[in-house]
Design a protein that fits this description.
The protein contains eleven helices and no strands. By secondary structure, the chain is an all-alpha fold. The protein has a domain at 27-196. The radius of gyration is 26 Å and the shape is elongated. The termini are far apart. 37% of the residues are buried.
């Protein structure tokens, strides 16, 4: 395999050298930044995106929209966890060594990576979160998917994964988040709906109470009719007194 990397006949390995080669020409401080971003930073960014999305969806739209969106938010980390569990037997079956064990000259930015390489846990988790978040809210989901793509690039840049490790992680995370989403939403939506109707816990789903939300919609949801044009909003008794 190392010989294939030299003549460029293996696209997976040659692309690994091309991307990781950027680390050799970059300043040391930039490599340290990429190391932190690829190992921890993007995952922290994912958490912030999820929290921002939760804060947004619970304040906007109808109560049904909030329940559906929050159920999707709950599903996103669950999908990531399920995808990581699925990856355990995959890694054990494939048993692909880390690229720096088979190929010389890589600039490895993170030490201690001695487990198997295929598929990337970081790429799997990031894409499962991104796609799961897309189920809840497209705008925030697109931002999270962009972060997941950056995560995959960082893993190759750091010299700890092949490009196909990252692509496999993206595929696994997407499959887990999408294929199981209908069943997950069917189970989570009633649960989140029950939480939304329960006292203080309801604020985790909907920031405004049903009374305030209905008042904000013009009072129609409370069954309060709007005054007819020209009626002045007064009762018939008041009109008689006025006459």
């Amino acid at each position: 395999m190392a010989g294939l990397a030299l003549d460029g006949s293996n696209p997976d390995v040659s692309l690994l050298y091309d991307i990781n080669g950027l680390a050799k020409s970059a300043p040391t401080w930039f490599d340290r930044v990429m190391e932190f971003v690829g190992e921890y930073g993007i995952m922290l960014g994912m958490v912030l995106v999820v929290l921002w999305c939760w804060w947004s969806v619970r304040r906007c739209g109808t109560a049904e929209d909030s329940v559906s969106a929050v159920a999707g938010l709950v599903w996103a980390p669950l999908a990531a966890g399920i995808a990581l569990l699925i990856n355990i037997p995959i890694r054990g079956f494939v048993e692909r060594p880390r690229p720096f064990k088979d190929h010389q000259g890589l600039d490895v930015l993170v030490d201690g990576k001695n487990d198997f390489s295929f598929v990337s846990d970081h790429a799997t988790m990031a894409m499962a979160l991104g796609v799961g978040l897309f189920v809840a809210n497209r705008k925030f989901g697109i931002a999270a998917i962009a972060l997941a793509l950056l995560e995959g690039f960082c893993r190759i840049y750091m010299g700890v994964h092949y490009p196909t490790d990252v692509i496999g992680g993206f595929a696994l995370g997407t499959a887990a988040a999408l294929l199981l989403a209908p069943l997950a939403m069917m189970l989570l939506t009633p649960l989140v709906g029950a939480v939304s109707r329960s006292g203080r816990l309801g604020r985790l789903v909907r920031s405004r109470s049903p009374l305030a939300a209905a008042a904000g919609d013009g009072g129609e949801a409370l069954g309060i009719p709007e005054p007819r044009p020209g009626s002045g909003g007064g009762s018939e008794g008041e009109k008689g007194l006025a006459a």
